[in-house]
Amino acid sequence: MTQTQAAIDARYLEVLPQWLRSLGEDVAAVGGAIEALGPDDEATRALVAGVNYVFKSLDLIPDGIEDLGFLDDAFVIRVSCSFAVAARPELNEGVLAGLAADARAVHEFLGDDYARLEAYVKGARKGAARGRTVEEIVVHAPVRQGFLDDLRAWSAAYQVPRFTRDPKTLVKLKAFLSAKLS
Q1: Helix (H, G, I), strand (E, B), or coil: what is residue 40?
Q2: 9, 60, 71, 140: which has the fewest Cβ within 10 Å?
Q3: Residue 149 contacts by C-beta under 8 Å, 6 or more apart in sequence?
Q4: CB atoms < 10 A from the CB of 95, how many?
Q5: 71 three-class SS
Q6: What's the pLDDT score for residue 38?
Q7: Is the dihedral of CA 134, 137, 140, 143 positive or negative?
């Protein structure tokens, strides 16, 4: 391993556990932003698609996989926030700005696979989780309210998973995502 690769690995071995620790709070903050935004908006759709992903039963990395299971959720939320901020630059403050900025770190980490992750996140707008599509959440107030209630409950119940600060964990994560995104 080169010195440069070792430095990059060391950075992500610190950053990724932080993202796992803040995931519940991040989901709650994005839910708050969705609540504050108007319902028929490109930024709202991006945010809803990102946090609706936490409810998918078949996501990129199953949540039960030790060390890795919730990192895909953290990545998807960051990419969706970058889409929302691009659609509405005035959102580029506070938690959303931080999450959107973190998407650059996801890009650096994934390299060439990042474009496929972006395409996957854009495609999540067409999917459904817990029987709710992004469009239904955005357009129908009662569905949106149920979704926001579920987000709050998920955030409150989220338990930070263990993360092994071992470069092999990063190799597994990249390999898993590369295989799933191809």
Answers
A1: coil
A2: 140
A3: none
A4: 16
A5: helix
A6: 74
A7: positive
How does DSSP classify residue 58?
S
CB 39 within 8 A of CB 138: yes
DSSP state for residue 130 in the 8-state scheme = T
The one-letter code for the residue type at 172 is K
Q: Give the containing element (helix H, strand E) for 158.
A: none
Identify whether the C-beta of residue 81 lies closer than 8 Å to the C-beta of residue 53.
Answer: no
Condensed to tens digits (0 to 9), the pLDDT of residues 78-125 reads: 999 999 999 999 988 899 999 999 999 999 999 999 999 999 999 999
Alpha-carbon distances of 116 from 52, 110, 180, rounded to whole Å: 19, 10, 10
110-123 per-position pLDDT tens digit: 999 999 999 999 99
List 11's β-bridge partners, or say none: none
pLDDT tens digits, one per residue of 38-70: 777 899 999 999 999 999 888 899 988 888 999
Task: Match 């039963």 to its residue by tokens.
Answer: 57
Q: What is the dihedral of CA 107, 31, 52, 80, to 10 degrees?
A: -20
The two tokens of residue 61 are 């990395």
